[in-house]
Amino acid sequence: MPYEFVSQHPLASLLPAVGEHPRAAGEHQPVAHDVLLTGMLFFDIVFTGFPAPPTPGREVWTQGMGSGPGGIANLAVATARLGLGTSLAAGFSTDVYGDWMWRVLRDQEHIDLTYSRQCRRWHTPVTVSLAYDGDRALVTHGHPTPAPISELLALPPPTRAVVVDLGDPQLREAPWWRRAAAQGALVFADAGWDPQQQWDPGILDALADAYAFTPNAVEAMGYTRTESPEAALRKIADRVPLAVVTDGPRGVIAIDSRTGEEARVAAIPVEATDPTGAGDVFTAALVLGCLRGWPLEQRLRFGVLCSALAVQQSGGSLAAPGWGDVLDWWHATEAAAAAGDPEAAALLPHYRFIDSCAAGMFTGAVRRADATIAHFSDARPDHDEIP
What we know:
The chain is α/β, with parallel strands linked by helices. It is built from 12 helices and 17 strands.
């Protein structure tokens, strides 16, 4: 039986009008779209706290589990939680996972889904993530969306920024993001991991309309055919105004050719629970800093901070920090420095910008991943029994 797109989600009539972005119950604040995203959604199930690595023929009971929207939702939630008006074009299934993710992204995270659609007779792709030994193993089942979601963006709406994965051939060739760039949007490009490690040089040629390129160190060296992250950064800086290379626990390096700035920022050491979505959180923070016109070093420091906060939670998208989490970290760091903690004291001069940048932002608590698909009314910490 052929696949069929629903013209619009049956709940879409309840969406706020374009330009409205509710941040508090009962309120609709008029804002422009800051970020336009498209990509594939997954329902993620994440296991954490392994007593031993999983092996064939053995059952392992873990200490933690979380579930939530994954894939492009990791980035969409990260940008929305930092106060960026986010519009997402994605395919949702009509199954229970798809309907649940639609509600979470729209009602809980206040992401505009005007350009998203549901599809009948197609199931939600599912990824199981096993987080242990500081990394993760992924098991995924799914099928491509029945039609390219980018077709929904044939005429892209006005937006200040676009994030695009050039490693996806369909997205690389899609004309919508170049049209957005021609309309003034800043295009933040990534390419992702090449499983065959062929590192297609066409990725670099596709950067002609991009503002920034943000690969990790291995990807950067692969695509530029260089032997060090620093050499790769220089090559990338010849292609785009903002070149950024992330290097995990070693931090991040960047060159902004428009301002003449160069910066290197160390990672903030934390005990990681789940690295899922850390790169997306960094990108979201970088986009925010660029749109606000922050100095390069400040943009990078905010990115590594948000990533450090995210990896201490489980569940990818729902691990993304909000401004309340950022302020909690800052105030805890101030208190630790006052108590004589040398590591906290060393961070203070680099993060004094947080208080002023958080002014006027939504600082309420954000919801974390649940072990199972929960109702919105289940966000209470208690465990009431049903009589």
